[in-house]
Each structure stands twice: as structure tokens, then as C-alpha cells.
């Protein structure tokens, strides 16, 4: 679950991460590395937010939007494994 950065030290993923810039769990530095999520062993591409310690992800619920134009999400429980899709330069 821990990747290594360019200096060889492990990179810790935050316990909770969101792609919504208005969320307190948004982290642009980590998201710029193209974070992938494995949920129950399957790679998910529509994850809006995750929490490792509580074991859940929020995924978009089709094309439905709330009254502010944001996608509706549902919370799904299970094991969460974040990883970097890009390969760090060695």
C-alpha cells in the first residue's frame, strides 16, 4: 500500500482523500500523481472519495446530479487500496 517516492522513502497515502476541491480532504499534491483505487480487488475509475480506516469509497451514481449540479454519490463499504498509477522516475 505504500509506494516509494524519488528519494526512496515510502509515500503515505492520507487516510481520507477526495477529488472535490471544496472538501477538507482534497490534496492537490497527491492527486497530481494520478491515484488509483482498488476496491475489493477491483480497480475503480469513478471514485469521488475514499477512507482507508473506515473501509469505504464514494462512487458516482450514474448521471444523476444534485441541485447544485454535483454528481450524486453512494457510499460502498469494503477494503480500499490506493496506489499511484504513474511510475516514479528512478
Structure description:
With 90 residues, the protein is mainly beta. The protein has one helix and nine strands. The protein has one helix at 28-31; strands at 3-4, 10-11, 16-18, 35-39, 42-44, 47-51, 56-65, 71-77, 80-84. A four-stranded antiparallel β-sheet has the order 3-6-7-8, with no helix packed on it. A hairpin with a 5-residue loop joins strand 1 (3-4) and strand 2 (10-11). The protein is globular, with a radius of gyration of 14 Å. The protein starts with a strand and ends in a 6-residue tail after the last strand.
Keywords:
90 residues, mainly beta, 9 strands
Q: Label the structural class.
A: mainly beta
Separate helix tally: 1
What is the spatial order of strands in the main beta sheet? Answer: 3-6-7-8
What share of the residues lie within helices? under 10%
Task: Return the average pLDDT rounded to an integer.
Answer: 85
Distance between the termini: 19 Å
- Strand element count: 9
Proportion of residues in extended strands? over 45%
Largest sheet geometry: 4 strands, antiparallel
Shape from CA axes?
A: globular
N-to-C order of helices and strands? EEEHEEEEEE
Radius of gyration: 14 Å
